[in-house]
Amino acid sequence: MQSEQQQATDLRGKVAIVTGASSGIGEAIAEELVQRGARVALFARRENRLQALAQRLAGKGSEEPVIVPGDVSKPEDVQKLVNQTVQRWGKLDIVIANAGFGYRSPIVDGDPQRWKNLLDTNVYGLLLTLKYGVEQLLKHGSGHVVVTSSVAGRSVTAGGAVYSGSKFAVGAIAEALREEVGQQGVRVTTIEPGAVETEFAEVAGYPPGIAEAIKQLDPLQAKEIALVVIQVLEQPGNVDIAELTVYPTKQTNLSLFANAGKGQ
Ligand code: NJP
Questions:
Q1: Which residues 6+ apart lie within 8 Å of 247 measured at CB?
Q2: Are the beta carbons of 67 and 2 closer than 8 angstroms?
Q3: Is 30 a pocket residue for ligand 1 (Cβ < 6 Å)?
Q4: Could you tell me if 101 and 121 are in contact, meaning their C-beta atoms sit under 8 angstroms apart?
């Protein structure tokens, strides 16, 4: 007979926050969560996109999502996200720490302001999300944190110093958190996607050559990553998939970036 712990986690009624919910992977995760009956707070800077998503999801789940517009690199905005979620639903169960963006440039040609914005979002913003979110999970001794890293957090190519550096940091931060909170019943998972067709390449300002190379890979769709995240969340409470790398089948290495760091 299965013990209660070994049963799949039912997402109905779970309360989740999703950072970076205005597009791409975060939007798709939010949608899949709502469709499974989770109660979801949507966070990103573009309020109009969050509103459009909330409208699209209305009636698809048990309750309408909460919208919290904000910048993940601002402590007061992240606190507002967590506070409004807990005020609305009384608890927090799932933290999807996903907001982030890319940038490629050789270090000597790099834009220091862009470096700072990227590290503020991908690293400092992640830390803020974890600090204020996980505090709530620890109150009831259960919950799940899913952090979006990247295959660029596993290996680096020329031009990828700052983005890869940020994602190596994401991996280290998530692993430290797992060691800090596992004993208290909180699971931590790092997802490392390969190329996913989202607004990511455009926001990163990739040259057309890279965008074309990504298309040739038959990239992952955001929904495909979201469904992987759902599988991770639905594992029984005693199963923590700590790290998961998900590639498009045709992406066998990071060679599409090999020339990008040389000034393209
Ligand atoms: O990209 P995109 P993805 N404060 O551009 C939000 C990683 N990844 O879904 O604020 C708050 O469609 C932004 O919202 P807004 C990647 O590193 C991707 O692909 O309104 N939110 C939007 O909702 C990232 O960690 C690929 O502009 C902020 C979202 O982030 C995650 O996947 C491959 C924000 C970005 O959505 C999601 O990216 C890989 C801020 N300061 C890893 N800054 C890939 N697509 O190929 C940004 O290995 N956001």
A1: 151, 193, 194, 220
A2: no
A3: no
A4: yes
Structure tokens belonging to residue 137: 């999970």
User: What mean pLDDT value characterizes the chain?
Assistant: 94
Residues 82 and 132 sit within 8 Å (Cβ to Cβ): yes
Which listed residue (132, 163, 206, 247) is catalytic?
163
Tell me if 98 CB under 6 Å of ligand 1: yes
Q: Phi, psi at residue 82, to the nearest 5°?
A: -70, -45
DSSP bridge partners of 147? 97, 190
pLDDT digits (tens, 9 = 90+) for 102-123: 999 999 999 999 999 999 999 9
| The pLDDT of residue 211 is above 90 | no
pTM above 0.90, yes or no: yes
Residues 6+ apart with CB under 8 A from 217: 194, 195, 248, 250, 251, 256
In the annotation, is 163 catalytic? yes
Span 44-89, pLDDT tens digits: 999 999 999 999 999 998 799 999 999 999 999 999 999 999 999 9
Residues 6 or more apart from 113 whose CB is under 8 A from it? none
Tokens 């220091």, residue located? 112
Angstrom distances, CA of residue 73 to CA of 70, 100, 102, 119, 122: 9, 10, 15, 9, 8
Cα 102 to averaged position of ligand 1 atoms, centre (Å): 8
Going by DSSP bridges, is the β-strand pair 186-193/66-69 parallel, antiparallel, or unpaired?
unpaired
**In sequence order, which residues have a C-beta less than 8 Å from that of residue 205 and are 6 or more positions away?**
103, 104
C-alpha–C-alpha distance, residues 240 and 190, integer Å: 10
Per-residue DSSP letters for 81-146?
Answer: HHHHHHHHHS---EEEE---------GGG--HHHHHHHHIIIIIHHHHHHHHHHHHHHHHT-EEEE
The helix/strand/coil state of 47 is helix
